[in-house]
Design a protein that fits this description.
Layout lengths: L14 H22 L11 H6 L6 H44 L17 E3 L2 E3 L7 E9 L3 H11 L4 E7 L5 E9 L6 H13 L2 E3 L5 H37 L9 H19 L19 H5 L1
Helix pairs in contact: 1-3, 1-7, 3-6, 4-5
């Protein structure tokens, strides 16, 4: 057992090396977690003697560069996967909104909600269009099912009951399409701005409501193409990531540990060595007091 020769001055000449190794350990833990979360993988480990017999094959500088390179690659994989997944979910949500615009029956060929509700009114001279005709606007999007009731109450109370909210559940998800109808003569009315603020505060996703059935059909075709492309891209990405992970699972030598396990053991060994060296005093000639069994005295001198 070594005694700390630097306890009074708190001098740790190898602290910088330990910090580098701790950063390597953090990256190795991240890579190990990513690999172990993949299906049908097995990490070869617990072959300590084999590692100790070949630990001179690694150097701190070269292994640090390799671990950092692989770590940055997996970080890019992770970021790209999240981005593509979010884009796919957004496309699926928008597709359901557009489909519901047709199924609700509020779209006619070439006409949308901007058409006056009352085209005209009878008079003694015939029918004429009202100058102050009534029009309806709407805001549509997707909300989580657990937030559906509270969202509807919030909109109703904030608008003093001057809105009507309709929900349609999206199959195989915990989400619903919502459509908020309100009376408005312009798209930039005060009521529209208020409803938009409520939606932003709640955190729901808003999508454009088609102006007519023809536009809805065209958007459905475009979104289905986008969704198919995103799913193919995600499938290809998953295959590429799995291939990269297999390189970390392969043993470096016959009967040895997986590459990721060898990296982990090297970090443990190096950190232990430098932590022990920090207990020594001196720079060129290092000295340290330690306790050892008397029976091991001769072997230690050798």
């Amino acid at each position: 057992m070594f005694e700390d020769m630097n306890s009074s001055v708190m001098q740790r000449p190898y602290r910088r090396y330990i910090q580098r190794i701790e950063e390597m350990e953090r990256m190795v833990r991240f890579l190990s977690k990513e690999v172990e979360n993949m299906p049908n993988v097995e990490v070869s480990k617990n072959r300590i003697d084999d590692f100790l017999d070949h630990d001179d094959e690694f150097t701190l500088d070269s292994l640090e560069a390799e671990v950092k390179r692989v770590y940055e690659r997996f970080c890019r994989f992770h970021s790209n996967n999240e981005e593509m997944t979010d884009e796919l979910e957004a496309a699926v949500e928008e597709l359901n909104v557009v489909k519901d615009s047709i199924s609700t029956g509020f779209l006619a060929a070439g006409e949308g909600l901007s058409q006056p509700l009352l085209e005209g009114e009878p008079t003694g001279q015939g029918s004429r269009r009202r100058e102050d005709h009534m029009q309806f606007s709407n805001i549509a999007g997707v909300v989580k099912m657990e937030d559906q009731e509270s969202f509807a109450r919030t909109v109703f109370r904030a608008t003093r009951g001057n809105t009507f909210t309709q929900f349609v559940e999206i199959p195989d998800t915990r989400k619903s399409v919502f459509v908020i109808y309100f009376q408005s003569t312009t798209a930039a009315s005060a009521m529209s701005a208020k409803v938009h603020r409520i939606c932003s505060a709640v955190g729901v996703h808003i999508y454009q409501w088609p102006s007519c059935k023809d536009e809805a059909m065209q958007r459905i075709a475009d979104l289905e193409t986008v969704i198919a492309d995103k799913r193919r891209a995600l499938a290809g990405f998953s295959k590429y990531t799995l291939d990269e992970a297999r390189s970390l699972l392969e043993p470096i030598r016959m009967g040895g540990n997986s590459r990721i396990e060898e990296w982990r053991l090297f970090c443990i060994e190096e950190r232990s060595i430098y932590a022990t060296l920090n207990l020594f005093e001196g720079s060129v000639s290092m000295r340290c007091d330690c306790w050892y069994p008397t029976k091991d005295k001769d072997s230690i001198r050798e």
